[in-house]
Amino acid sequence: MSLPHAILTALLEKPSSGLELTRRFDRSIGYFWSATHQQIYRELGRLEADGLIRALPAEQPARGQKKSYEVLPAGRAELARWTAASQDPKPQRDALLLRLRAAAVVGTAGLQSDLRRHLELHGKQLAEYRAIEERDFPPGEDAPHKRLQHLVLRAGIDLETFWTQWLTHALAEFEALGDDTLA
Amino acid sequence: MSLPHAILTALLEKPSSGLELTRRFDRSIGYFWSATHQQIYRELGRLEADGLIRALPAEQPARGQKKSYEVLPAGRAELARWTAASQDPKPQRDALLLRLRAAAVVGTAGLQSDLRRHLELHGKQLAEYRAIEERDFPPGEDAPHKRLQHLVLRAGIDLETFWTQWLTHALAEFEALGDDTLA
DNA sequence: GCGCTCATGTAATGAGTTACATGATTGA
DNA sequence: TCAATCATGTAACTCATTACATGAGCGC
After folding, report:
1. How big is the A-B interface in CB pairs under 8 Å?
2. Where are the domains of chain B?
C-alpha cells in the first residue's frame, strides 16, 4: 500500500501528468520506490475516484492529451496519516544472496561474472548519488525539508557503499576458491 | 521467479515437509527470502507437477499427514541453471525512506517513534546474526560451502549494521529538528 | 467429548509485470 | 504522407498476502 502514497508525495512536490510522474519515478523517487507507467496510470485513476487528487482543468481530457493532477486536501490528510502510522519493516528479499546460498549446494559456476556486473552497477549508482549530493546539498544547508531529503539520499549512498564493499569482498573470496567450486 | 529456487535450495540442504520448510523459511532462508506456508504449499505442488521434486514414499499422502519432498535430478539442474544465469538487481523498495520523503512535505509528526521502533528491530536482528556467526562460523574455517554461507551471513550483518547506524543518525537529526517540523 | 496443536490446504484479493493498443504531435 | 515519439491507457498474467477450512493426533 505504498504506491498511492509515493504518488501523493510526488504530486505535492509538483503537480504532474502521468508521464511526468513516470519520468520522476525513473529518477529520484524510483530510487527507493520504482513504478511503471501502467501502475501509475491505474493508481492515478483510483486516487481520483477516491477524491484524493483531481485533474487540473484547462486541458481537455482526451486520449493522447496531457492530463495533470493535483492533490486535494483529503489526499494530503491521507498522506500525513500514512506517514505517521506505525509500519513493520518488510522482510528482506534479495535474489543474489539466495543464489549464493544455492551456489553453496550446486556449485559456483557462472556466478562470478554476475557478481562483477552487479559491482559495476552498484558503483555507477553510488557515483550518481554522490553527484546529486554535491549538486543539491552544499555544506551548511539547514532548512528542515532539505535535511530530511539529505537523510534519504544518505541512506541511498550508504546502501550502495555497502553493496560495493560486500561485492568486492565476495569477489575476493571467489578468487580464493576458484571459479567452479563444488560443481 | 525466486521462490521455487529458494525451495529447491532448502530441499537439497535437507528433504522436508511443507511445514518444516515453513519453519526453515522463518529462520535462516527467510532472512533474505521470506515466504508464508500458503506460498510454499502452492509452490511445492507446482514443483512436483513439473517433475523437479517428488514426495518421499513411506508416508501416505492424506490431508493432515506429513508429506516430505526431495529434489530430483531435473530440479538440481534447474537450480544450477538459475544460479548461473545473469540477473539484474531488482529496484529497491523501501517504505520507510518513502515516508521520510513524504514527511519533508506533510510534516514529521509521529515518525520519530516509528524510527525508534525500527532501530530496535534492526538491533535485535543484528544481534541474532552475530550470535549465529559466533555459533556456526568459528575462525579458521575454510570448507568452500562454509565460506559461501558465511559470505551470505556477512551481508546480513553488514546490512543490519547499516540500518542501525543510519537510523541512529536519522534520530539525531530529528532531535535537532523537533518532533513535528513542517506539520 | 473438548480444546489444542500439527499439518495441509483453498479462496479471494491486491500488487506488480509484460505485452499490447490508440490517439496526438512533430519533423523529414 | 510516413515514421517516430509523446502520452494515455487496457488486458492478461504472475506473485504475494490475508483469511479461512479441514483433518489428525494428543492431553485432559
Report:
1. 214
2. 3-84, 95-177
Q: Which residues of A touch B103 (CB under 8 A)?
A: 83, 148
Residues 3-22 of A with CB under 8 A from B: 5-6, 8-9, 12-13
Nucleotide nearest to B38 (CA to C1'): C9
**Chain B residues 36-75 within an 8 A CB cutoff of chain A:** none
Q: pLDDT by residue (tens digit) across B10-38?
A: 999 999 999 999 999 988 898 999 999 99
The verdict on a CB contact (< 8 Å) between B83 and A96 is no
Each residue's pLDDT tens digit, A116-164? 999 999 999 999 999 999 999 998 877 888 999 999 999 999 999 999 9
Shortest CA gap B63–chain A (Å): 30
CA distances for B93 relative to A32, A90, A92, A160, B29, angstroms:
5, 9, 10, 14, 20
Domain range B3-84, its CATH number among 3.30.9.10, 2.40.440.10, 3.40.50.2000, 1.10.10.10: 1.10.10.10
Sequence-ordered strand ranges (E) for chain A: 16-17, 53-55, 68-71
| A152-163: pLDDT as tens digits | 999 999 999 999
Phi (first) and psi of residue A46, to 5 degrees: -65, -45
Q: For residue B135, give the C-alpha cell.
A: 555459533
Q: Which three cell numbers stand for residue B166?
A: 543510519
Interval A75-98 mean pLDDT: 93
Q: Is A110 left (phi over 0), alpha (psi -120 to 50) or beta?
A: left
B105:A2 CB<8 A: no
The answer to whether B72 and A123 are in contact (CB under 8 A) is: no
| Residue A30 Cβ under 7 A from any strand C atom | no
C1'-nearest nucleotide to the CA of A22: D7
Report, in ranges, which bases of strand C sit under 7 Å from a protein C-beta.
6-11, 14-20, 22-25
| Cα A170 versus chain centre, distance | 25
- Is the model's pLDDT at B152 over the cut of 60? yes
